Fold:
Amino acid sequence: MKLWDKGTPVNEVIEAFTVGRDREMDLYLAESDVLGTIAHITMLETIGLLQKDELSALKQALTGIFQDVKKGSFVIDPGVEDVHSQVELLLTQQLGDIGKKVHSGRSRNDQALLDIRLFTRDSLLEIAYEVRSLFDILQSQSEKHKEILMPGYTHLQVAMPSSFGLWFGAYAEALSDDLQLLTSAYKINNQNPLGSAAGYGSSFPLNRTLTTQLLGFDDLNYNVVYAQMGRGKVERIAAFAIANLASTISRMASDLCLFMSQNFGFISLPAEITTGSSIMPHKKNPDVFELIRARSNKLQFLPVEISSILGNLPSGYFRDMQVIKESFLPAFSEIQTILRISTFAIGEISVNTRILDDPKYNYMFSVEEVNRLVLSGVPFRDAYKIVGKQIEDGTFNPDRNITHTHEGSLGNLCNDKIAGKFSRAFSEFDKSKVDKIKAGLLGL
Structure:
């Protein structure tokens, strides 16, 4: 079945190529397609294109389809082009001509736009909650280990005193900024494109404000041409937010791979969450962090891929956009998996409390000694030369008692301030509101 079928058969080779992976990809969108259809037909009844009894019958049938989706029993039949066609086919099989009325005033273009917006909204919400879990464990580890010193590095050379509190807290604050970008993507996505039809509106007196309210969108994409131009653009914006988050996690994983090596020896993991070697019995490999890094790095190319597909398209709809779904839709489950396993693994880390017993870390206290001389009245440049001469002569003997008090430093991590920043961004993600919207559409 094809919604655009006019009775002329399509070459089988062309059909297979143009349908592509839509049957597979559209299963991601099935829940959204049903909810969008319920909102659309509710609006159609208010403008006289459906009778009340027809609306009631359609809603009941669509609720049944929704339940099949949730149970995992919904399928797109062979010969059916996409999820939109499958839902309309099921309605027509159950209700006859009534099922044929649901497409009035919309196109597959704005139907697909809407499905992707609803799916993306749900997925961004899920990601935000996973980010919160990772943030919480990083903050917990930061507080737990804030007194344990470790070397800080520049150019991978031992530089200055740091701490595990600083290290864990740094990635927690990074996530608070990543959540800000995720919030922006969420807001841009949360606009209603339904009613733009093929990209030029409809001669039916559609009530787009009503469908906006029914679906819980913050606003409309008002201009129907721009609504269609949003296909791919919104996906790219969401992909940038995902890629940015993946960049933070990749960098964190890379640190942890270094820290677990014997040359560093800063952290360890329980044996049961490491892997071994087929020939070296001593190995305990950090495969979990290596795979987190690799999968995160792969996600960082997603916005580039989408940009490449969109790069030379004029305004209006083009089938090129179909290909975006193949990378975009699965990316959400991938980043959620990465976040979950990162949260678990970070919680299992044990830190080495005696790193600085190794004399090779003595020089990391050189700046502290320079600062002590400055505080005693020695000009900074002279103090720098004095300590430098001691290092050259091999007479430098560091005082390891250090005091940092300014905001965000060793002695003042400001984890409460960072938590405040995170909470303000997270407050934009209201899962209960979206759940209430879905329940209202389904009459639950």
Notes: DSSP finds 16 helices and six strands in the chain.
